[in-house]
């Protein structure tokens, strides 16, 4: 089961309809709007589900620092997430469950890691 989080809508791109910037757990993140059955408004809070879209390979390395945050890369949706790989759960600024990272990188389980992410999908 995917956990839901309360997110504040910071902005919605006027040109790219699927681009939305959210504030979740004091972290600002640009997301790809995957599912939204009703209209959302800037400045309002909503419950959301988040999912990482990962590259095919080589996206996880051990992290030098122990932190739970993200850094956006460029103007697109790509980012780097920092957090702790705890079995089937990657604990970052939010918990990402069932991404199966621990199967591909068992040597990094129970360690702080840095993950290159193509985008973070959001569903309202």
Structure description:
3% of the residues lie in helices and 53% in strands. The protein has 124 residues and is mainly beta. It has one domain. Strands 5, 6, 7, 8, 9 and 10 form a 6-stranded antiparallel β-sheet that branches. The longest helix is centred in the C-terminal third of the chain and has 4 residues. The two termini are 15 Å apart. The mean pLDDT is 93.
Concise summary:
The protein is mainly beta. It contains 1 helix and 11 strands; from the N terminus they run βββββββββαββ. It has one domain (4-123).
Features:
124 residues, mainly beta, 53% strand
Describe how the helices and strands are arranged:
Elements (H helix, E strand, L loop, with lengths): L3 E9 L6 E6 L2 E9 L9 E9 L6 E3 L6 E4 L6 E8 L2 E3 L3 E3 L3 H4 L6 E7 L1 E5 L1
Parallel strand pairs: 3-11
Antiparallel strand pairs: 1-2, 1-4, 2-3, 4-11, 5-10, 6-7, 7-8, 7-10, 8-9
């Amino acid at each position: 089961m995917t956990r839901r989080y309360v997110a504040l809508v910071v902005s919605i791109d006027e040109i790219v309809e699927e681009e939305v910037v959210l504030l979740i757990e004091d972290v600002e993140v640009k997301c790809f709007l995957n599912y939204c059955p009703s209209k959302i408004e800037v400045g309002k809070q909503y419950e959301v589900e988040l999912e990482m879209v990962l590259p095919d390979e080589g996206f996880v390395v051990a992290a030098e620092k122990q932190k739970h945050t993200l850094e956006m890369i460029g103007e697109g949706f790509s980012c780097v997430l920092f957090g702790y790989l705890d079995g089937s759960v990657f604990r970052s600024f939010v918990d990402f469950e069932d991404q199966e990272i621990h199967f591909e990188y068992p040597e990094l389980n129970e360690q702080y890691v840095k993950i290159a992410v193509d985008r973070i999908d959001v569903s309202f």
